[in-house]
Amino acid sequence: MRMLILSASLMTLAGCAGFGIPSQDPSQAWIDLHTQQEDTLQAVEVDDKATHDKRYFEVEPGSHELTVRYQFAVQPTNIGPGAEPLWRDCQMNVKFKEFNAGERYQLQAGNIGFRPWAKLYDQQRKVIGQGVPAGCQHS
Predict the structure, then answer these.
(1) To 5 degrees, how large is the angle CA 93–CA 96–CA 99?
(2) What pTM, to 2 d.p., does this model score?
C-alpha cells in the first residue's frame, strides 16, 4: 500500500513538472510578469489576441500592445477608518515598439490607493513603457 501511495505521489509530481514555464525561444522577446506577493498579474492579450499562458508573454520582435489583468487590494488606510480591504480587478494596456528577439523584459504592476500602475522594463532595468488603465471593477 505504501508503495502505491509513493508511486502515485511521484507521478503527480512528475506531471506538475511538465506544467512549468517553457524555455525562452531565442527568436522571440520574453516578458516576465511581476507584482507584490498578495496581488495577481496575468497576461491577457497581445495585439487583441488572447494569450495561451497567463504567466508571461512571448512575442515576435517589433511593436506590440500587451493587455494584463491586475487584481489588488486597496488597503483600509486608503478607504477610511474601520474599512476592510477592497479588492480591485483592473485591465491595463502597455504598448512598446521595439521588442527584440532573445531579450527578456519585465512588466511590473502595483497600485497607489485605488489607481493601478504598470511599468515595462528592459534587461538593464530601464523603464521603456507604462501601462494605461483600461477599466477596473470591484471584486
Answers:
(1) 130
(2) 0.80
